[in-house]
């Protein structure tokens, strides 16, 4: 109670003294105001005015400070009096800070007026006040004063002043921030060094001071060595720190190094100071440390970076659960992701608190790695592992994490159906109470996933669900509240999905969905969605107003299909003007790219010149090249004209740029180089480059350029040449197959000290390879200089250049290998094939389509083997391909590819036991067919027969009874692709007269496929059987083929196949002299209705019409007709026979009949007695056989028939009377006597 009474009395006394002082100060203010009114000179007036303002401010401050200590009030007004006597010649009037703090900041130079016995904490607090007030001016004078003060006043004993550490920290943090904002990194270093000297071994420095210093240094131009110097002071001065360094300082240090591009140094520092074995400084990381690390790794990802990275040193700790899951999924070509996974064990301790922010940054790292590296696959598995780890740690994902999950699992690389996973997780969010309800961002992420998978129909369905039109269709009404209303960004995402170029490709992975796809074009869909968006906005949805991005996407879509009309483009631009939608450079660029003609492009350029808001809008919203709106738009127009090869409109655009003083850029020069090369004037490019460097020769070059191209360039209009222009000129010459001028450009680059890019060497290799291919194929686009060089030498040059490049692209090696194969340089082609195989095996390969390129190269080489009939090279390639496919599945069993000198080193037992289809680089059916073609041309029938066995699994899958698929149309398409294998195999067997193997191959094929054998293969077998005199087997094969049911009907098996088979079989038998078999097949064809036969009685004779029959069928028809005459009644036997052969109007030689002489020769030579013919009166296309000749032939045939019957009867009589047996026994005994 006594103490309280004393305190209350002290407060009352202080308040009374404060009121007295306030009254005195108000009196002084009034007196000063009267002096100000009576002052004449401006200088004195300004002095009094400053004094008055200071006094008024201090009076108000003293009123606020009435509760403070009375001695503080006296000290406060002591400074007022001092400032008044000095006339406030320096600094600004004191003021109360806006934050409401009643303390007053005092300039640093007044500290000299302080009593030297005053505590250091009070002096430092005065520095803090002054630094706070002067910070907005970015004036570092006070900070410099503090630096010198700390340097010159090292502390001896800090135990007597408890406020010293906090006041020192506050002053130093304000000083370093001021120095950082002013960009003075030297002052920051001096402040830190001075503070270390000031501490003088006493633990008064807070680690926060070093963190603030590092953060301020990152705002200046200080390099990494300055940052490391500050960090070295912090880690080596443990005795002066109030407590050890924390994760806060480490996070700032890591971010500062990463900001300078020292990513690996930042990671090394993290690993060094979070290692428990570190004896010097061990810092316990927190959640913000993990998110900082993942953010640094994410920001450092670049698609052009090198993928090799030394492995992270292994820790003694075992892998965490999340780390082991992620390692089991896959290893990424992005070293940043692998590093993040390897460092997850650092955060595996009990006190570490995982949160949504850490998981979100890890998901963002995975998302960017997948976006820049297509080989970073298994997005759904990685995301599932992260979500599973969150579930184990009982961390519920928030909306940001869920939106990232939807994005990541929708990655189409490695899984084209990933969009279904994204939508499935969205549905889970609506069903499970533990997950937040999906908001607009989650739906937008799902729509973006659909767009990346080219599923714009699914994106449209999600949009309709958000609009509330088709919620029942997708089952959204069964759970949770309604979907959020869409905004303009959602509509833009759907429009981007429609704009995807992959929407019109064929998709075989989902045939049912293909059937339901609409046939509407993208332009129509986009315009419908655009009109729907405008109608919803007109209905009251304010966040659905189409913006500049919406119009830009619609304009981009309009240029993807048929060229739009000029009215539609202009109407969209007018609509933007009427609705107040600003236009930017992208708007006019898309409109120009969609414009189909040069005249419309010119009108659009004139329109953009009159758009006043264009430049302002582009500067505010766009970055990079698009910020310079006019140059960007005109360069787009030049690019369009150059890509179309329109030299006339390109010239007009250049003239328009010069007329309106549009500043050209490096892209302008590049487009001029392109149009000059595409117009067939690539020889001008070396002169063009030299003319831009030498002003003396520019006038001469300009006249030549104007004559050949019509382009007029001002002497100083184009900017200076860059190194890229030399490379582009060389590339354009190579594209034009102008290798001579390309070499000149290459030597010019070397003379100027320009290091050629590796792509330049690849362009030379591609040019040589393309020239060799064009010469071999007989192309006309090879100029005279390259035509002098033989294709073999061109291919060798391409191979040498490709072999000299450290890392050529697989596409380049594919083209060079193809040229070597076409030039019959197979050993070069084989080496390049193996190099591409090594690229596929390498984990550092940056290309997703490397396997596809390898498959294409294998197919190209085998097709060339088939074209050349080189079965030896084909077998080499097959062995290499199968061996490599086996190494992809079992790398431990097969470690090294066989060399060209040891091609028999492949262990067949291993390859036969595995399914090579799992590798993705195995022999495809088309490749086996190429091997059969090569074997056919070289006559290796055994290779053909054996290779058919490799196609058996593929043929069996096309069997209608195969349960693998229910799509008959797809089976039929696959079957048609396999048919050439049997056709070429039977053709080879026909050539080698292997009729038994031909029949066996056809029967096996029928049993595999369950379909009728291909007619070409059957005819090959029939021809070889006929040539070997096996008429009966030929007939049996034909009848077996005809009796086999047609599974898919004549429409797919091919109409007229039966007629072709009968006709070709009859012809083959006829040519080999098997007339009876030919006649039998002809009669079978006629009876089946596939062949024609017109034999009818006429008015005076029997008429046989041979129209539409070839020679073999005509012969069979005549023989059948003559036999039919023998069976007619007696009245018709003695009639004449008229054979209509035609006049030869449809013959190869007009009016030179083929059947007439053949039938006449047949009747005279093949019939006995011969049948004479005469031309029908008035009809040169008909022959008449006399009735008497027919009657004599019939009598002869009956006599021959009687003789044959008597011979048969005698043979039967001998057999029945045992005469034949006795004669045989006697002959055997005589033979034995002769041998004895």
TrEMBL record:
Biased composition (Basic and acidic residues): 305-319
Keywords (A to Z) from UniProt: Repeat
Location of region: Disordered: 305-324, 501-520
PPR repeats: from-to residues: 439-473
Pfam families (UniProt xref): PPR, Smr
Keyword Isomerase found: no
InterPro entries with a match to the protein in the record: PPR_rpt, Smr_dom, Smr_dom_sf, TPR-like_helical_dom_sf
Domain Smr, first and last residues per copy: 1104-1188
Name listed for the protein in its UniProt record: Smr domain-containing protein
Organism: Cylindrotheca closterium
Keyword Repeat: yes
């Amino acid at each position: 109670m006594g103490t309280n009474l004393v305190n209350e009395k002290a407060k009352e006394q202080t308040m009374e003294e404060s009121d007295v002082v306030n009254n005195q100060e108000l009196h002084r203010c009034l007196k000063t105001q009267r002096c100000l009114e009576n002052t004449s000179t401006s200088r004195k007036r300004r002095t009094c005015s400053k004094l008055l303002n200071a006094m008024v401010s201090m009076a108000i401050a003293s009123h606020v400070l009435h509760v403070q200590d009375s001695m503080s009030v006296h000290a406060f007004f002591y400074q007022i009096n001092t400032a008044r006597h000095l006339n406030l010649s320096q600094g600004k009037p004191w003021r109360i800070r806006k934050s409401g703090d009643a303390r007053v900041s005092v300039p640093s130079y007044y500290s000299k007026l302080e009593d030297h016995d005053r505590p250091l904490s009070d002096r430092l607090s005065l520095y803090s006040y002054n630094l706070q007030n002067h910070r907005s001016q970015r004036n570092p004078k006070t900070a410099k004063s503090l630096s010198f003060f700390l340097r010159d006043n090292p502390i001896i004993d800090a135990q007597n002043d408890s406020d010293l550490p906090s006041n020192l920290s506050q002053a130093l943090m304000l000083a370093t921030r001021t120095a950082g904002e002013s960009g003075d990194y030297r002052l920051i270093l001096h402040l830190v060094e001075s503070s270390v000297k000031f501490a003088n071994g006493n633990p008064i420095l807070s680690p926060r001071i070093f963190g603030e210093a590092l953060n301020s240094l990152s705002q200046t131009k200080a390099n990494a060595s300055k940052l490391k110097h500050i960090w070295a002071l912090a880690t080596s001065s443990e005795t002066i720190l109030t407590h050890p360094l924390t994760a806060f300082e480490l996070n700032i240090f890591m971010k500062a190094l990463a900001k300078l591009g020292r990513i690996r140094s930042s990671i090394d520092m993290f690993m060094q100071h979070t290692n428990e074995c570190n004896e010097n400084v061990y810092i316990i990381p927190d959640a913000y440390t993990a998110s900082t690390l993942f953010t640094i790794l994410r920001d450092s990802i670049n698609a052009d970076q090198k993928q090799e990275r030394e492995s992270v040193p292994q820790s003694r700790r075992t892998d965490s659960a999340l780390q082991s899951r992620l390692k089991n999924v896959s290893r990424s070509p992005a070293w940043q992701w692998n590093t993040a996974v390897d460092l997850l064990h650092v955060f595996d301790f009990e006190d570490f608190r995982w949160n949504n922010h850490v998981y979100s940054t890890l998901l963002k790292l995975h998302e960017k790695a997948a976006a820049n590296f297509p080989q970073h696959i298994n997005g759904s598995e990685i995301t599932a592992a992260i979500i599973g780890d969150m579930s184990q740690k009982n961390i519920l994902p928030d909306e940001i994490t869920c939106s990232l999950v939807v994005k990541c699992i929708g990655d189409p690389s490695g899984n084209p159906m990933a969009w279904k996973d994204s939508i499935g997780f969205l549905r889970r969010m609506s069903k499970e109470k533990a997950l937040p309800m999906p908001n607009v961002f989650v739906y937008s992420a799902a729509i973006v996933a659909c767009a990346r998978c080219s599923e714009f129909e699914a994106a449209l369905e999600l949009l309709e669900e958000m609009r509330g039109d088709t919620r029942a269709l997708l089952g959204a009404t069964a759970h949770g509240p309604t979907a959020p209303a869409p905004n303009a960004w959602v509509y833009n995402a759907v429009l981007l999905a429609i704009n995807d170029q992959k929407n019109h490709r064929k998709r075989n992975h989902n045939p049912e969905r293909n059937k339901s796809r609409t046939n509407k074009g993208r332009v129509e869909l986009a315009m419908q969605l655009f009109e729907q968006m405008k109608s919803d906005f007109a209905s009251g949805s304010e966040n659905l107003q189409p913006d500049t991005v919406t119009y830009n996407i619609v304009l981009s879509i309009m240029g993807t299909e048929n060229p739009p009309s000029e009215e539609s483009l202009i109407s969209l631009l007018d609509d933007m003007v009427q609705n107040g939608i600003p236009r930017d450079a992208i708007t006019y660029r898309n409109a120009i790219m969609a414009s189909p003609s040069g005249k419309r492009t010119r009108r659009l350029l004139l329109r953009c010149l009159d758009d006043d808001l264009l430049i302002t809008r582009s500067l505010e919203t766009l970055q990079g090249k698009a910020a310079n709106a006019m140059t960007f738009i005109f360069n787009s127009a030049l690019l369009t004209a150059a890509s179309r090869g329109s030299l006339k409109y390109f010239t007009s655009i250049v003239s328009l740029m010069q007329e309106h003083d549009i500043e050209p850029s490096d892209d302008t020069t590049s487009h001029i180089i392109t149009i000059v090369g595409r117009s067939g004037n690539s020889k001008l490019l070396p002169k063009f480059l030299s003319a831009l460097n030498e002003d003396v020769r520019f006038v001469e070059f300009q006249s030549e350029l104007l004559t050949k191209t019509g382009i007029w360039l001002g002497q100083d209009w184009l900017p200076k040449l860059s190194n890229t222009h030399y490379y582009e000129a060389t590339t354009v010459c190579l594209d034009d197959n102008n290798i001579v001028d390309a070499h000149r450009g290459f030597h010019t680059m070397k003379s100027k000290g320009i290091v050629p890019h590796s792509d330049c060497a690849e362009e030379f290799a591609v040019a040589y390879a393309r020239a060799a291919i064009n010469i071999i194929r007989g192309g006309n686009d090879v100029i005279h200089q390259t035509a002098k060089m033989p294709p073999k030498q061109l291919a060798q040059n391409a191979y040498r250049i490709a072999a000299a490049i450290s890392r050529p692209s697989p596409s380049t090696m594919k083209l060079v290998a193809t040229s070597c194969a076409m030039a019959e340089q197979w050993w070069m082609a084989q080496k390049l094939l193996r190099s591409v195989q090594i690229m596929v095996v390498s984990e550092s390969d940056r290309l997703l389509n490397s396997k596809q390129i390898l498959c294409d190269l294998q197919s190209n080489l085998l097709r060339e083997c088939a074209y050349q009939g080189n079965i030896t090279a084909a077998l080499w390639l097959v062995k290499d391909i199968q061996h490599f496919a086996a190494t992809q599945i079992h790398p431990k069993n097969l470690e090294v590819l066989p060399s060209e000198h040891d091609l028999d080193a492949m262990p067949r037992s291993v390859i036969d036991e595995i399914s090579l289809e799992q590798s993705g680089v195995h022999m495809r059916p088309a490749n086996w067919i190429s091997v059969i073609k090569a074997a056919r041309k070289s006559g290796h029938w055994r290779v053909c027969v054996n290779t058919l066995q490799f196609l058996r699994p593929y043929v069996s899958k096309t069997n209608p009874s195969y349960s693998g698929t229910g799509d008959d149309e797809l089976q039929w398409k696959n079957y048609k692709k396999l048919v050439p294998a049997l056709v070429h195999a039977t053709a080879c067997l026909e050539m080698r007269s292997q009729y038994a193997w031909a029949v066996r191959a056809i029967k096996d094929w029928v049993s595999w496929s369950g379909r009728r054998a291909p007619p070409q293969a059957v005819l090959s077998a029939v021809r070889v059987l006929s040539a070997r005199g096996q008429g009966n087997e030929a007939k049996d094969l034909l009848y077996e083929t005809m009796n086999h049911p047609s599974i898919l009907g004549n429409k797919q098996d091919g109409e007229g196949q039966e007629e072709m088979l009968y006709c070709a079989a009859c012809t083959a038998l006829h040519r080999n002299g098997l007339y009876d078999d030919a006649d039998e097949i002809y009669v079978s064809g006629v009876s089946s209705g596939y062949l024609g036969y017109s034999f009818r009685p006429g008015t005076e004779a029997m008429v046989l019409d041979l129209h539409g029959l070839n020679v073999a069928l005509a012969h069979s028809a005549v023989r059948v007709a003559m036999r039919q005459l023998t069976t007619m009644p007696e009245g018709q036997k003695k009639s004449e026979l008229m054979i209509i052969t035609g006049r030869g109007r449809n013959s190869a030689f007009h009016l030179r009949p083929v059947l007439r002489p053949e039938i006449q020769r047949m009747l005279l030579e093949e019939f006995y007695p011969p049948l004479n013919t005469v031309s029908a009166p008035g009809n040169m296309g008909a022959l008449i056989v006399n009735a008497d000749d027919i009657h004599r032939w019939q009598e002869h045939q009956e006599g021959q028939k009687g003789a044959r019957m008597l011979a048969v009867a005698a043979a039967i009589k001998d057999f029945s009377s045992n005469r034949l047996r006795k004669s045989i026994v006697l002959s055997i005994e005589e033979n034995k006597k002769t041998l004895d």
